[in-house]
Structure formats: structure tokens, C-alpha cells
Amino acid sequence: MRRNPAALADDIFDLLIIGGGIFGAGAARDAALRGLRVALVERADFASGTSSRSSKLIHGGFRYLEQYDFALVAESSRERRILREIAPHRVKPLPLLLPVYRGGERPLWLLRLGMTLYDLLAMYGNVERHRTLSQKQACALEPTLQADGLRGVIRFFDCQEDDARFCVDNVLHAAKLGAACVNYCEVTGFAAENGRITLARAIDRLSGTELEIRARVFINAAGPWVDRVAALAPTSDGRLPRLSPTKGVHILLPRLTQSHGVFFQGRRDGRMMFVLPWHDRTLVGTTDTDFHGDPASVYPAAADVDYLLAEAAALFPGAGLKSSDVIAAFAGIRPLLASNTANPSARSRDHQILRQGENLLSLAGGKYTTYRLIAQQTIDAAYGIMGRKPRACTTATTPIPDDRPRMSGEKIADSPPVFASDIEHAAREEMAITVDDVMSRRTGLALSRFGGADVAARVAEIMAPPLGWEDARRQAAVAEYGAERRRSIGFEE
Ligand SMILES: Cc1cc2nc3c(=O)[nH]c(=O)nc-3n(C[C@H](O)[C@H](O)[C@H](O)COP(=O)(O)OP(=O)(O)OC[C@H]3O[C@@H](n4cnc5c(N)ncnc54)[C@H](O)[C@@H]3O)c2cc1C
Fold it and tell me: What was the pLDDT predicted at 242?
């Protein structure tokens, strides 16, 4: 799959999807599977927005039970099972411990009741049912867990994924089915006649070429930018999706557990938080605070990092965690629907598909776990606008392929396992344009101990022949990666 912006101007598409995060990628795959003519444009790299900055869980959302959002938990649990079936190489079961300490806000009996309901809402289709463990049993499984005051532990399952890679997988599958998917291509405006959008104007950010992309229906899947893209449409009539976005920060620490994630109540404010194994490291998250800035400039603040570190240190006192153990921190924006709830963590994770004018659909809200279902509803709505009877959606039963070459040749990293052939394939067949595209969104190297300058230099050497880079361009590509890494994830080198 080569990046081919010229293909965008060649045709009148049934759908133009704006935004290559998981919702746009999922919609493109769904539409392509139903035989529609689809274009997808993404202003930066696929998955470079929120869809690479999540907690990387495909989960039923145990914590939504506190908000009595049983429908969302049932829906998410069903989607968790479906995603595990169609992408077992990406969506993997993760055992989690939920420790209950003396003096905690939520007593053990209540959490056990909640877990029974969690299993029930999954129609007992989760990986395993939950179990209650004694302090001794839990500490035998995870000896580093704080044992003092531990009343009991619930062991349950959710699933874990590489969010960026899974999003790219969806784009690549759509492209394989014939969709014209182009990264580094930004929609800058629309033209309309009689209340109907006829084309979107876009700019190819690599060449500077301006493009006009014609389609019957336009789908705005721009995540935290959704209201900005909707405002470009002359047909919006001021009816814009209303968001109450929040910022979420994660930090990366040395590995703290053997095989479990830990879902725990924060000591400072009682919020539920995660410590998750991530290759040979640990991901700790997340914060949830109101965000009013530019989604393209979102960074972790020192206070966010200190807060997460303090919570992890209290949960794993034996690890002796200190500031210098923070390997990286990154931030993302949750494009949540507007609500009157002052507490950001209590805001609904529900979604909305808003029709503006004749033929613009904007997606707002939602969570990664339910992307497939949201995509299905969106494409059904697009059929309605086109006045055609929808062809059946097959995304719940069609596997998402993994077309990467099997392990061979030079090994670049072992956790995650990455080979030179993966990097060459990313440059030739997966529309990776920059070193960061490969490190952050094709291979997962950036969030591993192989994310530094030496590995980046080797990655650039492998990318150079397929992308035709001379020496100067190759060196500049490594320097750009370093700058991007310092900007967005504040890594130590
Ligand atoms: C901290 C955090 C933790 C989370 N954890 C989880 C979790 O564990 N599980 C879960 O299910 N969900 C989780 N979520 C929610 C989930 O990540 C999001 O719901 C999902 O990724 C949103 O995807 P999206 O496609 O709407 O947005 P994005 O991924 O942001 O995609 C939108 C894309 O549109 C592009 N774009 C914008 N403007 C234009 C334009 N003019 N032209 C072309 N392209 C444009 C952007 O560049 C961007 O890539 C989490 C979110 C956060 C922030």
C-alpha cells in the first residue's frame, strides 16, 4: 500500500472520511467491506491523535457501573469479545488485580457485587469469571504489591492492545479492500451547493499540493478536532458537536508486576487508576482534567507526572520509586460529549452521530473499545443519506489481517519483538513517512527501551532505500524524531 494522494482527485467517492484515528479507520474498513468507494484523509500520521495515547485497554469499563451506565458496560463487553475474535494477534486477555485496602472508599463486598454484575453484563463471555483472593494468595501472584492493610483482592480480566498499531491495521485493511487512505493530508474547507457539500478542499502536507475531493457523504471523525472540522462546513448552521474534552496523562516506569495489571483506588482523590504491564515496562494512568487548548499541543505537566508517580509508589512501596524512574510521560485528549457534570471522571463515554446539513456526519464521544460498533452505526447512517438500503455490516466476523512479514533477518528489539523486515515493510507497504511513524505507530519501539537515538538511526538506515533518502535527509529524519520525542513524550535519552 503506497501513499497515493493523486487517487483522491480521481473519483467521486461515496464517502470521504476525515480523520485517521480509530473511528475514521474503523469506518473506512466497514465501508470498504460493504463495497462502498471510500477515501480517508488524516492531517498527520494515522493514529497520531488520541488513538495512540489511550490506556491501551479494550475493556467492559468496570468503573462505569458506578455511574449506573449498564448499557455501556454491556455494549463494551460485547465489543471486547468481538475484537478478541477478529484480531487475536492484537487484542489480548490481561489479568487484573483489584486490591481493597482498609479504609478504602469502596468495601470488598460491594466490589465483589459489582464484579458479579460485570460478569453478568458480559453474559459470562469474558475470558474468565472474577475470583476473590486473600492477601496471601494475591501477594504470591504479585509479591511487590503493598500488603499492609490489604483486605482482599479481586482478580478479573479485560483485554490489552497496542492502540496505535491496531488503528493502523484498520487503515491498512481498508486500503487493501480498495479505500484511498492518505496520511499527511488535511481538510481545510468545503464547498457546498443547495445545502449539500460537494467537495472538501485539502492540502497534501508533504508536497504542498492543494486537492479537491468529491464525495456523496462526508464523515467527520476528527476526534478532539471534530468541532473545528464541522465549523469549516458552510452547511453546519451553527449546529456543532458539543464537547467537554479532558486531558489524560500516562507515565512509563520500570516493570512493577510479573504478569498482572492492577486497577486501584487512588489515595489522593479516590479515583480509579491503572498500573499496566507494557512489554518490559509499566504504564501508569491516568489523569482526567478539563482541557481547553489546542489538541495538537498537549503535553504532560510536571504535576500530572508527580501525582501518578506518588500513587504508583504507594502501591508498590518496595520498588522505591523516585522521579528519575519515570522513563516517559505522554498526554492525550478524550473527545467527550459535553455534559453538566463538573467531575471530568464522571463524564459519559457515550457517543453521538450528528447530521449537519444534507450530507455531513460528525462523530463525537465514544471510547476505543466501542469503535467497531460506532463505525457500523455511522456507515448505516451514511447509507440513509445516500438513499440506499444498507448492505450488511461484516466487521464483527471478518478477521483483521496482519500482513507483516514473519520474523526474519536482523533483530532490532526483543520487547516488543521488531525485525528489520518490519521496518522495511512499514516504509514500503504501510505508508510510514517519518522515523516517528515507524517507532511510535508501526512497531511500538518508541515506548520501549529501544526508543532512543541509536535505534532511531538504524531505523532511518533501513527506511532510506525504500523512501529514496540521501544521507542528509536520513540524518534530518533522525533529528526530527528526537525533537518530536522530546516534545510529545519527554523521554530521557
Ligand atoms: C488518556 C486516555 C486514555 C484512554 N484509555 C482508553 C482505554 O483504555 N480504552 C478505551 O476504550 N478508550 C480509551 N480512551 C478513549 C479513546 O482513546 C478515544 O475514544 C479514541 O482514541 C478516539 O479516537 P478518534 O478517532 O475519535 O480520535 P483521534 O484518534 O484523535 O483521531 C482523530 C484524527 O483526526 C485527525 N484530524 C483532525 N483534523 C483533521 C483535518 N482537518 N483533516 C484531516 N484529519 C484531521 C487528527 O489528526 C486525528 O488523528 C482513552 C483516551 C485517553 C485520552
Answer: 82
What would the DSSP string read from start to end of 22-61? HHHHHHHHHHHHTT--EEEE-SSSTT-SGGGSS--EE---
Cα separation, 126 vs 159, in Å, equals 9
Q: What is the pLDDT of residue 238?
A: 72
Lowest mean pLDDT among 178-182, 222-226, 351-355, 488-492: 488-492
Q: How far is CA 274 from CA 262, 271, 312, 315, 367, in A?
A: 6, 10, 9, 11, 17
Hunting for cell 443547495 — which residue is that?
A: 194
Cα(376) to ligand 1 centroid in Å equals: 17
State the cell numbers at 6.
493523486
Question: What mean pLDDT comes out for the span 458-484?
Answer: 96
Instruction: Enter the C-alpha cell of residue 157.
Output: 480480566
pLDDT the model gives residue 407: 66
What's the sign of the alpha-carbon dihedral 206, 209, 215, 218?
Answer: positive
Pocket lining: 184 vs ligand 1, CB cutoff 6 Å: no
The protein residue with its alpha carbon nearest to ligand 1, atom 31, reads 21
pLDDT at position 470 over 70: yes
Residue with CA at minimum distance from ligand 1 atom 52 = 54
Ligand 1 centroid distance, CA of 217 (Å)? 21
Q: What is the pTM of this model?
A: 0.96
Residue nearest atom 1 of ligand 1, based on CA coordinates: 248
Q: C-alpha cell of 273?
A: 487508576
Query: What is the spatial distance between Cα 256 and Cα 45, in angstroms, rounded to a whole number?
Result: 32
Nearest by Cα to 1 from 126, 251, 234, 183: 183
How many CA atoms lie less than 13 Å away from 482 in the CB half-sphere?
A: 14
Host H or E run for residue 118: helix 108-121
Who wins on pLDDT, 109 or 405? 109
What cell was used for 463?
Answer: 527506511
User: Does the beta carbon of 257 lie inside 6 Å of ligand 1?
Assistant: no
User: Residue 201 pLDDT more than 90?
Assistant: yes
Taking alpha carbons only, the member of 99, 79, 222, 66 closest to residue 161 is 79
CA of 133 to the centre of ligand 1 (A): 36
Decide: 223 and 58 in contact? Cβ < 8 Å. no
Q: Which atom of ligand 1 is nearest to the CA of 202?
A: 42
The residue ranking higher by pLDDT, 489 or 387, is 387
| Average pLDDT score over the chain | 93
Is the per-residue pLDDT at 128 higher than 80?
yes
Mutate to test the pocket of ligand 1, among 41, 162, 334, 371 (most ligand atoms within 8 A of CB): 334
Q: What is the pLDDT of residue 492?
A: 39
Q: Tens of pLDDT along 374-395?
A: 999 999 999 999 999 999 999 9
DSSP bridge partners of 332: 248
